[in-house]
């Protein structure tokens, strides 16, 4: 499975277990500007996973897989997941 496919499947899984995901496309314009990093945050009481376009694809995949495992682990146990997707979630 390609990294792009991995991210797409993780995003679909997040949608299926009610985990909000937002991708931001911006990158820093210079070395002096801070970059947004992928991570989990709470906005107005809702938990979101923010995936930054400034991060490498592998980092965005790892961030989303970890958030799914840590925040929705019980819901994931009740779902059928392909062996490749389950391995991805367990390795993040």
- Low-confidence stretches are none
Radius of gyration: 14 Å
- How is the biggest beta sheet arranged? 3 strands, mixed
Q: Tell me the span between the first and last alpha carbons.
A: 16 Å
Work out the helix count: 3
Report the structural category: alpha+beta
Please state how the strands of the largest beta sheet are arranged side by side.
1-3-2
Average pLDDT rating: 89
Helix content: 40-55%
- Give the count of structural domains: 1
From N to C, what is the helix and strand string? HEEEHH
Shape: globular
Strand content: 15-25%
The total count of strands amounts to 3
Question: Mind explaining what this structure looks like?
Answer:
With 92 residues, this protein is of the alpha+beta class. It has one domain. The protein is built from three helices and three strands. Strands 1-3-2 form a three-stranded mixed beta sheet. Helix 1 (3-16) packs parallel to helix 2 (57-77) and helix 2 (57-77) crosses helix 3 (83-91). The chain is globular.
In short:
This protein is α+β, with helices and mostly antiparallel strands and 92 residues long. It has helices at residues 3-16, 57-77, 83-91; strands spanning 20-24, 39-43, 46-52. Strands 1-3-2 form a 3-stranded mixed beta sheet.
Features:
alpha+beta; three-stranded mixed β-sheet; 92 residues
Could you give the topology of this structure?
Elements: H1 3-16, E1 20-24, E2 39-43, E3 46-52, H2 57-77, H3 83-91
Parallel strand pairs: 1-3
Antiparallel strand pairs: 2-3
